[in-house]
Design goal:
The structure is a homotetramer. By secondary structure, the first copy, chain A, is of the alpha+beta class. In chain A, 26% of the residues lie in helices and 24% in strands. The first copy, chain A, contains eight helices and 18 strands.
Chain lengths: 355, 355, 355, 355
């Protein structure tokens, strides 16, 4: 299989960028959960193009149509299917590129995998547009988690080398989702915006890091070895296009730590046992320890850039050059923030309901 | 479930550190594959304690007994079960610690998850000792991959802040498995050894990074979205205790790259289409592109350290101090190198056979 | 999860009888398979109401819209989603029944499972209407199987006590799908038709048995113990509403056989090793033996009958009587024949592609 | 995969009839469940050869060794592995048969599936001996179910054409496990015993049917469509060697019923809503309805018979004759009764814990 995820909650994504539509089936939701569609729309708007600096001008019109599994404003408990029709697709922009695989895209690997049968228009099933139904599914999961006292928030940790203030791993983070760039430090946000605009003018792009934290997640969920919390969260995060690295807690930095620095030591607090620090990102032995769940994902720069790039020509089988003329984000990280919140929410709900 | 992994190849790990034994069931192996048990023993020896500097003096006696699925020197195609009996366990070292959860261990999370029913001796099912049967399974997978032209190698990328020469991501890496520390630069290896010994003398520990590369893996395997190569490889890597971060290709560094730098551009080589660089780590759109598969894992420092540490006392429900007196690695990274090779080999074989 | 099936091919069904629509996502199809939509329509017409005697007069209008995974007349290899919009639903017929659970329906169990949140109109997600997208998925699978030399055919084995001529388990069966009742013996078909009409006039219903056979399925597929061919085929067949029994080969009759009668003995034929008989239904030790795959499913009578029936009243919590006034099949078995062919085809394709 | 089963509880079977041993890993058990090993031994004894009439004289010595997941008399919640060593295997009896596939066995299909690499001795992984660890797993599940008020009982419904009194589908059945043949009617049991002995004297064998019923299973568990209760129970039952048919409630008989006869009608009882009849076997729409769960499995006659049988010779590729001289059951049905109870218990525990 290619596009299904989950143990208790099962997500099945379908669709191609320039086909009839894209969508998701969510199987295993608890029944009777009220879902506020207005809140879903707000969450999805944060991902939609045009809302963030550096985003493509393409108007996606992410009008979600809920087909099933939703009755009288509540989940039924049977599969919830939601669809987004495609429009404004301008396939002509892409047609001439088929012979010239775009560097950094899945054009060559899609060819190898599907022997040329996959829909090449706009990236087809590989398109970042598939994150729209994923974000929808996450918006549903977030409401169910909230009702159980769990909050999931993310911000831009960095774009290029410009870093936002990191989350305090022991505290509920500030909600910065309403800002034009979701960052804690507005000053750093301004610098990020300038960097993004500079790169757009250079017909280039830039990568970044998203940091995400879930508070209120109970201790004792997950399990050791393969089906542990890190494995399950990472496996859905790497399903988000352009993610090339995932780390929990202090992540790669712990490789430079001594044990005496890194170990989170317990103490008796009024509310029960707490940990003085949270280097582990709320997970020890694959199981939640009651501290906030904290992780970061590295995003590569958008592969679609306006600059001419070297490639091969599959018709002539010679070296060639390609220029990508469509509309593209010079930085996808701002739009990726709600996508990561969504992926995390799906994973956490799956873990929560399974145990 | 907690301890099973895989789609086509299914690995089921069982056992506790100080119980009767530990082992693995490998389901889905192709039939008729000759397996050289001598090579398995060599591979497992690289993981065994005492063979590497900084390793625990505990003699694990990893005598593998193959119970099933192996006949006349070949895999049968039916489930292969292998067991390692436990001995020399000295449970007395651990008994007094039950009331005082060890910082950085799964003592508290295990308690929350299993309501006190799990075997606490030596970490029980959470023990790093469970990587022994995982390494066995990987040793089997490696031989099957080798027969198909695929090589999996790993080295210590760093211990603390001391870095080994990184792999060239476009070339088959040198085999450094025979060295006392598996590094490319013997000089850096010497410095790492000194650091490890210093920390042992300080009753402390240190983390590190393992870099792993698979060459010869064919293009066109894996798939987009959830069941992609990164997700599947990461999900097994995070199953290795102490791994807190996983990155592919240039990983977190790509967050600082421009698209024009990061995109791997194709060209016509004599042997077909190749890529000039391999920033993507051999994976584009979740699918292998024919370049080497490259990734790194961050290991936290061993939580077991000799220094006194703050903790709580579960009997008195007050703050307390714990001193861990057992034998422990001051750095597990050298022993983790064959474990990571093994986990990668299992994941790659699973992907290879599924498609 | 509730509505997903498969290892290599994954089917996800969604929708409710009287909601916006119903549909299916098929994940894992091989890429580049031409699919003849006209043949799909013909196959689905055999299931549609009004086409068979005893069928409901409701016009379902099973207009399938393929949303994704299909490009230039071929499968892309990425998830294929197909939808059928609902219309002509007359929910008013059902609304008054909510307080009075219908005997033989899932009204009470749906209430227990979903705490009253599931869509009750027309059976909701429990509706036999969900077999329409399943039949679509099977029609796709059948074309892919045909291209590999595998044929799947079914007929009505019996309705009530009237039995059709059974299939010869060693021969490719006659295609009777074009007949108004899919039976081998037109004379028996006539008697079945009379029985169905009698029961319709009595406002009652009747059960039956469907026999299905796949020829051309290669030997050596499947596996022993849990994931064997019988388990996988049975698990999808029991997913068809109203199926209460599944048997392979001679099925329940073998319980009365002696070993010397039942064992299928091999002999040397010109084309290789064949078996003299096929009591095992083409499966030995969970693995195909090259003989036709043969099985039967028992269908219970349609629970919706016009006669007054005893039930309880959930508002008054007293005994009560219910009369079902909607339009219903007095026998679903004729329409079930292509559904069973479809379910079998999906299972066989899943097994074929996995190995 | 071949030998794993389950969603929440995962069972992994391994081993070959004449290898070092056979066993099972049970993943996902709840922690802290006391397990009475004496009761397990009693349950397994009912399956062991020599204890029932018609059973092979081979002494299997099913000495179970629990390797992991069991501590201080309770489940730990981590994987429970149990092994049975093999002894008294007399492989010589089988060696000469390799060239002559035994009719009714998996010799030919095993060859096709595993290309000759599987262990042929005593049926290898196909052996009915693999039901011993399955029975162990079931014995564990039964104790956990009992603690939750659920009882699972089975009896011989028929051997050949001799039928025992059927269970009353609305009542807790009598426990007949202590009888030498587990039947309700001792008179019929006597006739069955005579039939079995006659067939043994004729060097032949006979099939039969096992009926199983679980009482106390709560309403509202399971789900519609694919992952329904019938599918899950049937999928594990067909994993028991020699099972060729599975039916729930009235099963194949409902194909001859009218709707007005078959529908189980609800009424108000003192303890809540009950059903007047239980033709559905406690399952409606794939979900439990609170009535006893009732099903039957058809067993084919033991394929190993002493009579000479026609077969082919794989060395000469000509027709030939085989005589099987080992020790074999002339009827496996008596020994199958606890196996079916076990398989049912595992399925019911999996369903119970998942929801």
């Amino acid at each position: 299989m290619s596009s299904m995820w989950g143990n208790k909650i099962r997500i099945s994504l379908f669709g191609e960028s320039h086909g009839k539509g894209i969508g998701v089936v969510i199987d295993g939701l608890p029944p009777g959960e009220p879902i506020d569609t207005e809140r879903i729309a707000q969450h999805m708007k944060r991902r939609s193009p045009g809302f963030q600096p550096g985003a493509t001008a393409r108007r996606e019109g992410d009008e979600i149509s809920v087909i099933s599994g939703f009755y009288n404003g509540k989940t039924t408990g049977t599969p919830l299917c939601a669809m987004i029709g495609n429009s404004d697709t301008r396939s002509v922009d892409y047609d001439k590129l088929v012979a010239k695989p775009r560097p950094g895209h899945a054009d060559l690997t899609g060819l190898a995998r599907y022997a040329g049968a996959n829909d090449p228009r706009g990236g087809g099933h590989f398109s970042g547009r598939l994150t729209a139904p994923l974000t929808f599914a996450g918006a549903v999961a977030i409401q169910i988690l909230n009702r159980r006292g769990i909050t999931v928030r993310a911000h831009i940790a960095s774009i290029g080398t410009i870093e936002d203030t990191p989350y305090d791993p022991t505290q509920t983070p500030e909600d910065c989702s309403e800002r034009s760039l979701p960052v804690l430090s507005e000053d750093r946000g301004l610098k990020m915006r300038q960097l993004i605009e500079t790169l757009r003018d250079e017909h280039d792009s830039i990568g970044g890091v998203v940091e995400c934290m879930a508070t209120g997640f109970p201790a004792g969920l997950g399990r050791p070895i393969f089906d542990n919390m890190e494995s399950r969260i990472a496996s859905i995060l790497f399903g988000v296009p352009a993610v090339k690295g995932v780390e929990f807690g202090r992540g790669f930095k712990v490789s430079q730590f001594k044990g005496s620095q890194n170990n989170d030591s317990p103490y008796m607090a009024e509310e029960g046992i707490r940990l003085r620090t949270n280097h582990a990102g709320g997970i020890e032995g694959g199981i939640s320890n009651g501290m906030p769940i904290l992780f970061r994902c590295a995003f590569k720069p958008t592969p679609s850039i306006g600059k001419p790039q070297k490639t091969v020509n599959l018709e002539t089988m010679t070296d060639d050059t390609v220029e990508i003329t469509g509309r593209h984000d010079s930085c996808i990280v701002p739009r990726a923030v709600p996508v990561i919140e969504s992926a995390a929410a799906i994973a956490l709900l799956d873990i929560l309901l399974e145990d």
